[in-house]
């Protein structure tokens, strides 16, 4: 296990809250940020037989019929010199159970203005919906936008 030399930001501890969790990985501080929950239909999982699907849902204590709620998260990686947001959340695209990313960023001790780069993992709306507002203006005034 790595010895913590210093937190990339001067957080007094690895505090947690309902909107974020923070961990140290080597010299990086990683904050998992809650954007909300979205209901999905497990029948949409392609290539999985009904028996395997029901067994997996039961094993994870999910209902075997109907929709299941799944958490949508983004991450901040603080390298000490750069602050990278991984995925931009859903913005206001998914209704009242989503769109909490900005509040989670602030709860974790950062602001949207602190972000140096945004890394987009893929182009699903729950990962890119928060990259701009309803008028098409950038939500994050980043210096770089990166694609994986």
Characterization of the model:
It is a single chain. This protein has 3 helices and 6 strands, in the order ββαββαβαβ. The chain is α/β, with parallel strands linked by helices. The chain has a 6-stranded mixed sheet with strand order 1-2-3-4-5-6. It is globular. The relative contact order is 0.18.
Topology:
Layout: E1 20-25, E2 28-40, H1 50-59, E3 68-78, E4 83-86, H2 101-107, E5 117-120, H3 125-128, E6 144-147
Parallel strand pairs: 4-5, 5-6
Antiparallel strand pairs: 1-2, 2-3, 3-4
Question: Could you name the key traits of this structure?
Answer:
alpha/beta, disordered N terminus, 6 strands
Summarize the structure.
This protein is of the alpha/beta class and 148 residues long.
Tell me the overall shape: globular
Helix content: 10-25%
Q: N-to-C SSE series?
A: EEHEEHEHE
**In whole angstroms, how far apart are the ends?**
28 Å
Q: What value does the average pLDDT take? A: 82
Strand order of the largest sheet: 1-2-3-4-5-6
SS-derived structural category: alpha/beta
DSSP, total strands: 6
Largest sheet: 6 strands, mixed
Helix tally?
A: 3
């Amino acid at each position: 296990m790595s010895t913590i030399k210093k937190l990339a930001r001067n957080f007094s501890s690895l505090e947690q809250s309902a909107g974020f969790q923070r961990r140290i990985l080597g010299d990086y501080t990683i904050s998992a940020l809650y954007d909300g929950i979205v209901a999905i239909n497990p029948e949409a999982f392609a290539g999985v037989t009904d028996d395997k699907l029901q067994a997996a849902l039961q094993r994870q204590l999910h209902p075997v019929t109907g929709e299941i709620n799944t958490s949508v998260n983004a991450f901040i990686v603080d390298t000490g010199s750069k602050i990278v947001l991984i995925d931009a959340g859903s913005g206001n695209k998914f209704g009242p159970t989503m769109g909490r990313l900005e509040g989670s960023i602030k709860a974790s001790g950062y602001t949207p203005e602190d972000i140096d780069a945004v890394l987009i993992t893929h182009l699903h709306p729950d990962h890119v919906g928060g990259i701009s507002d309803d008028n098409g203006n950038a939500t994050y005034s980043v210096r770089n936008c990166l694609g994986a």
